[in-house]
Amino acid sequence: MFTGQGAQRVGMGSDVDEAAKSKAVWDCACDISGFDVRRMCWKGPMGKLSETRYQQVAVTAVNLASYYALKASRLLPEDSVFIGHSVGEYSALHASGALDLEQTFKAVNARAIGMQTQAEQTKGAMYAVKGGSIVQVNDVTHCSQMLRSLPSHLPAPRLQEAPAC
Predict the structure, then answer these.
(1) 3-state DSSP assignment of residue 46
(2) Is the pLDDT of residue 69 over 70?
(3) Could you tell me where the DSSP H helices lie in 34-100?
């Protein structure tokens, strides 16, 4: 299982064996993205590493460098099946042989740039729901939709907890 966006941390990938193929991953990521992916992963800064533009390429590089280090150690079974979450899907496609290294980083780099551009041009938000029933989540969603339909000159009320609208 290859991880996706949100798994970044400064220092990630610094413990990956510098096997020839792992080194090729870092080199390819740097060449295609136009930034020093190794340095970004290993030294940060975290603020920049968390930007979609950098994060997606960085997570993919760590995923694939780790994959090749594991493969070189002969601990990876030959009949392995690969899956990925979000941008991790590209690592899974590469590991399964569907994309070569260059295709993988070209696709991820284009995706990262596109998503960063959209994030900068579009006002939006993402919420994580932890706990609560589906009824409470539906109530909050319904209230949120009602609030968006209010005329823009009215002040929007603040929701403190899941109300029953």
Answers:
(1) helix
(2) yes
(3) 37-43, 46-49, 52-72, 88-95
